[in-house]
Amino acid sequence: MSDRERYGLMAAFDTAEALLAATRRAYKLGYRRMDAYSPAPVEGLAELTGCDERERAKISWLALAGGIFGGCAAYALQYTSTTLGWYFLSGGKPANSWPDFIIITFAMAVLFAMLATMLGMIWLNGFPKPYHPVFNVERFARASSDEFFLCIECEDERFDVERTRAFLESLQPLEVVEVRA
């Protein structure tokens, strides 16, 4: 199989502890382009597979930007409609009576922060992605029930088919298979 047809090598494990130990060893050897699949969250696995704090911070910034935009847009809409378009003197209040605008401004800031977070998560996670090369592995159907998988991608700097296969087999997995692209 040529490198263009290969996505990577995948090892199957029967426990979360075995997957975590294998991922730690792969990380120590210098593999960085890898992903782990498990039926339940495994503590510490995300950091070893490349999900660091800088990636997580993007969502926080998107939420902040969405909230600021939503709050400013709501305030601007209320301000322009009461001062420019529909000014009505009521009870001696000024046209720009900002305490009246706070509730809607806050609600819109929360709404836009939530929408920015949701859409940002979809975008940053690469969705929608109806196809992924790991679906070509027959055994991968068990990833959602009772097996754990570590896939080292061909794009990794340290990837060499023979050396990577030997490394994965040294971890005592249930099986090591090539993943077709």
Structure explained in plain terms:
- The chain is α+β, with helices and mostly antiparallel strands and 181 residues long.
- It folds into two domains: 6-52 and 130-180, Alpha-Beta Plaits, CATH 3.30.70; 53-124.
- It has five helices and four strands, in the order βαβαααβαβ.
- The chain has helices at 16-29, 45-48, 53-85, 98-124, 161-170, and strands spanning 6-13, 34-37, 148-153, 175-180.
- It has a four-stranded antiparallel beta sheet.
- Helix 3 runs antiparallel to helix 4.
- It is rod-shaped.
- The relative contact order is 0.28.
| Count of alpha/pi helices | 5
> What would you call the structural class?
alpha+beta
Rg over CA atoms:
25 Å
Helix share, percent: 40-55%
Shape: rod-shaped
Beta-strand share of residues: 5-15%
Number of domains: 2
Here the CATH topology of the largest domain equals Alpha-Beta Plaits
CATH architectural label of the largest domain = 2-Layer Sandwich
Q: How would a textbook summarize the main sheet? A: 4 strands, antiparallel
